[in-house]
């Protein structure tokens, strides 16, 4: 999973908009290289949607991962950065906060077949579409579908405690780091019991569950690019392919092959 200090990705320009031309505005991007944006905020809701490739959105609260046919919902005013893998087909929707409804907090949502086709069709419309005509009605149906989209568990919360944050950032940079919580406690100058309690309180996950989710989310980009499951498993810290597949199924409900069907 790309860390906040990602250095091997090119910078992607952020569109300079004083305001949205319509309540719903779309951008199509075909990104050959792996790219990322600097941290930024804007006055509208953003939906970052991966048609192909994998998107990573980082905020102060955590990381959100969108493989194909998923999207990250980013509320207005939230500071964030977006990283994409190479050969990504990305669709960005910018939504007026009033039109977007009252949903709060970043989250990853599923893009079902109907919503996918609505996005595809909306992205073909002129920027200044007729809000009172068929195009405006299509935009309103798309907004309705986004508001009821199912949330999926492709996010990783970050703690606020500086000791835990240091630990989490180190694991983001090296997810195969196998140090135990006891070993981390010795490095951070806090007891294992304290770290265990803080982890659960600040992330809602145990240390073991948090690290497993980090590794599994980080594996999605390599799997989407077609790398061998054995190679991916070893690269993110698993001792065997079978252990990786079992953990993947436990987290996502399907095997890696079913998550990324041919």
Automatic annotation (TrEMBL):
Gene3D superfamilies in alphabetical order: Homeodomain-like, Jelly Rolls
Keyword Transcription regulation appears in the UniProt entry: yes
Pfam family, one: AraC_binding
GO BP, one annotated term: positive regulation of metabolic process
Domain called HTH araC/xylS-type: residue spans: 165-262
Keyword Lipoprotein: no
Gene Ontology molecular function: any one: sequence-specific DNA binding
Sorted UniProt keywords: Activator, DNA-binding, Repressor, Transcription, Transcription regulation
Protein origin, superkingdom: Bacteria
Name of the protein: Transcriptional regulator
């Amino acid at each position: 999973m790309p860390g906040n200090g990602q250095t091997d990705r090119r910078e992607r320009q952020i569109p300079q908009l004083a305001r949205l031309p319509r309540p719903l505005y779309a951008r199509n991007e075909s990104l050959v290289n792996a790219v990322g944006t600097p941290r930024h905020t804007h006055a509208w809701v953003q939906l970052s949607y991966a048609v192909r490739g994998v998107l990573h959105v980082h905020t102060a609260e955590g990381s959100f991962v969108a493989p194909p046919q998923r999207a990250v919902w980013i509320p207005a005013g939230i500071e964030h950065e977006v990283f994409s893998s190479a050969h990504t087909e990305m669709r960005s929707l910018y939504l007026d906060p009033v039109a977007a409804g009252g949903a709060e907090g970043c989250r990853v949502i599923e893009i079902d077949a109907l919503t996918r086709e609505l996005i595809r069709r909306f992205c073909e419309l002129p920027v200044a579409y007729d809000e009172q005509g068929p195009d405006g009605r299509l935009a309103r149906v798309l907004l309705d579908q986004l508001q009821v989209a199912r949330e999926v568990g492709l996010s990783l919360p970050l703690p606020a405690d500086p000791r835990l944050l240091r630990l989490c950032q180190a694991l983001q940079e090296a997810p195969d780091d196998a140090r135990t919580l006891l070993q981390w406690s010795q490095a951070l100058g806090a007891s294992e019991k304290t770290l265990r309690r803080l982890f659960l309180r600040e992330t809602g996950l145990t240390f073991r569950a948090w690290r497993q989710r980090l590794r599994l989310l980080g594996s999605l980009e390599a799997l989407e690019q077609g790398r061998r499951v054995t190679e991916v498993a070893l690269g993110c810290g698993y001792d065997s392919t079978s252990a990786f597949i079992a953990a993947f199924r436990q987290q996502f409900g399907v095997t890696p092959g079913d998550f990324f069907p041919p």
